[in-house]
Amino acid sequence: MFSKEGKAKDVATPRICDVVWHDGEFIKWNDARVHVMSHVLHYGSSVFEGIRCYSTKQGPAVFRLKEHLQRLLNSAKIYRMDHEWKLDQLCDASVELVDRSGLEQCYIRPILFRSLDEAKPAFGVNPFPNPLACYIGAWDWGKYLGEEAIEKGVDVCVSTWNRLTPNSMPAMAKSGANYMNSQLIKMEALVNGFAEGIALDDRGYVSEGSGENIFVIAGGVVLTPPLSSSILAGITRDSVIQICHELGIPVKERSIQRAALYVADEAFFSGTAAEITPIRSVDRITVGAGGRGEITEKIQKAFFEITKGERKAPGEWLTYVRASRAALPSGNGSQPDKSQEITSGNQEAEPVLSYQAVANATD
Fold first, then answer.
1. Domain 11-139 maps to which CATH number in 3.40.50.720, 3.30.70.2970, 2.40.40.10, 3.30.470.10?
2. Every domain of the chain and the residues it spans
3. How would you write 16-56 as a 3-class SS string?
4. 174 has catalytic annotation
5. What is the 3-state secondary structure (H, E, C) of the chain?
6. Share above pLDDT 90 across residues of the chain, in percent, rounded to a whole number
7. pLDDT at 13
């Protein structure tokens, strides 16, 4: 009765790094274990990141490493996770992990969570008695929404599940608990034959995908929901906005009605996993010409040229693993004085979070 195809599909994982960084040491992949009674397994008490490392002519290069790890620290702060790790230490650990892996390209997953004190276990909701554990793993990961999706686009639906309200769960924190909501959105889409779902916020305006931010293009203007629409302030989202400025493409941050998805000229997802993925239909209504649009292609082309090290980025977005280990993380943040504010007509603009400014403030 229902499609089972989506349940079996997953992103291709050709290789996994055989070591994992754990609290300052490298251990074997098979030794990276947690107790079944760990707080994180019962109450979702984790924060994490997803970071892409790209293959370039100069060797592996991590995309916006410092900004990603600053967001991890911000997420931990929101959830009162008081830990010992500094930004530079996590950057160094990530780079060394990629270097040890021998992978030319990979996906890096740092995670900080509440574990279990086996000598004095605590089993309640109260997270404070539980020790924190930090791990970083890496694996070679394919295109998140399919190899053909980058060019041909994906078919998506508007989910019956809304995004969480900002004062229920903090959307600006990338926490494991938030992704239970994402799983509901994703599963509903898959069993109904779609590649992805788009959630609305509690007011009925467009929020984001289960694991991606969304952009809509109408009349040559690129539109994206504001932070007040319960979105994660994505690093790739910020990159797209800066690329649009570089290309001279107007970009505005504003509330987007559901119906605007159906009449848009183009639409695309952005995210570390999804990168820049066009949307060709929403609720089986064709978006524009039904594929990758002209403006989406321009943004996508510039993005991939930057990640390959073939185009100058708006800031120094690539950390070259083999060439800069000793110097890391110096020079890895974008230059905050060159950032530009989004305007949205007569509506007061909501500023885009500047991760590079936050990161530089910690140096």
1. 3.30.470.10
2. 11-139, 149-314+336-353
3. ECCEEEECCEEEEHHHCCCCCCCHHHHHCCEEECCEEEEEE
4. yes
5. CCCCHHHHCCCCCCCECCEEEECCEEEEHHHCCCCCCCHHHHHCCEEECCEEEEEECCEEEEECHHHHHHHHHHHHHHCCCCCCCCHHHHHHHHHHHHHHHCCCCEEEEEEEEECCCCCCCCCCCCCCCCCEEEEEEEECCCCCCCCCHHHHCEEEEECCCCCCCCCCCCCCCCECCHHHHHHHHHHHHHHCCCCEEEEECCCCEEEEECCCEEEEEECCEEEECCHHHCCCCCHHHHHHHHHHHHHCCCEEECCCEHHHHHHCCEEEEEECCCEEEEEEEECCEECCCCCCCHHHHHHHHHHHHHHCCCCCCCCCCEEEHHHHCCCCCCCCCCCHHHCCCCCECCECCCCCCCHHHHHHHCC
6. 81
7. 63
Where does the pLDDT of residue 144 fall: very low under 50, low under 70, confident under 90, or very high at 90 and above?
low
Which residue in 57, 66, 174, 301 is the catalytic one?
174
Q: What is the largest CA-CA distance in the chain?
A: 63
Tens digit of pLDDT for each residue in 101-128? Answer: 999 999 999 999 999 999 999 999 999 9
Cα–Cα distance measured from residue 345 to residue 172, given in angstroms and rounded to the nearest whole number: 25
Domain 149-314+336-353 belongs to what architecture? Alpha-Beta Barrel (3.20)
